[in-house]
Amino acid sequence: MSGESDALLTVRRAAKFYGQKLVFKEVSCRVGPGEILLVAGPNGAGKSTLMRIMAGLSKPSAGEVALNLEPERTAYLGHATFIYPGLSALANLKFWGAMYGLSPSRPRLRELLERVGLERAAEEKAGSFSRGMAQRLNLARIYLVEPELIFLDEPGTGLDPGSLATLRDEIAGFRERGTGVVWISHHVTEDAALADTVLALGGRQVEYFGPAAGFAPDGPAGEGAC
User: Which of 13, 28, 37, 94 is at a distance of 20 to 30 A from 48, taking alpha carbons?
Assistant: First the structure.
């Protein structure tokens, strides 16, 4: 677990209300380079809300979030894929690259599509893609920008078993490259083994924050998360 001085992300006593409804309170955690933080908890515990706050897409009602790097050095993969249906897979990647000030070559773009198993669909319009294909194209976008901190909100949604295994290999590879990862998963039992740290939400607060090896996915905070 990283110290505050080298953390990419630090959350201190964050709370979130929607009107008078408390979502969670007193959430504190840190993520450093090459660390994987798995966010667990039952449906409705506020996992996605917390991730959006961590990524700077929403503000906490109380507490603070310190993102210790430029926003363009982060990447976010949520439930929406944000692909452009009228553009081909190649054109989507080229557009995303331009948004980050990059000018990737066509061979580089094809290499990224091959990495996610979409090389044969390079020229196809993304609007014809299945959910799994769209999610893989979104993963290629993350690989393109090579961020220092990645937010993954249930990235395995819609993926077949082979693609899911590839995804897990890639997440392990992020650690090796020194990339920090905040990861919400529907497969907590399997994915906790890949994480360094687990933050489990339950009962509108943190029920566990510590080494992944000490987390029990079948405990109260893990129920309904798989």
Answer: 94
Contact 68, 4 (CB under 8 A): no
Say if residues 39 and 184 touch (Cβ distance below 8 Å).
yes
Residues 92 and 85: their CA atoms lie apart, in Å, by 9
pLDDT in tens, 60-77: 999 999 999 988 899 998
How is residue 223 written in tokens? 């129920």
pTM of the complete model: 0.86
- Among 151, 173, 203, 177, residue whose Cα is nearest residue 39: 151
State the burial class of residue 91 (Cβ atoms within 10 Å of its Cβ: 0-12, 13-18, 19+). middle
Question: Residue 124: left if φ>0, alpha if ψ -120 to 50, beta else—which one?
Answer: beta
Beta bridge partners of 37: 182, 197
Measured CA to CA, the distance from residue 130 to residue 133 in angstroms comes to 5
DSSP lists the bridge partners of residue 184 as 39, 153
Token pair for residue 9? 């992300």
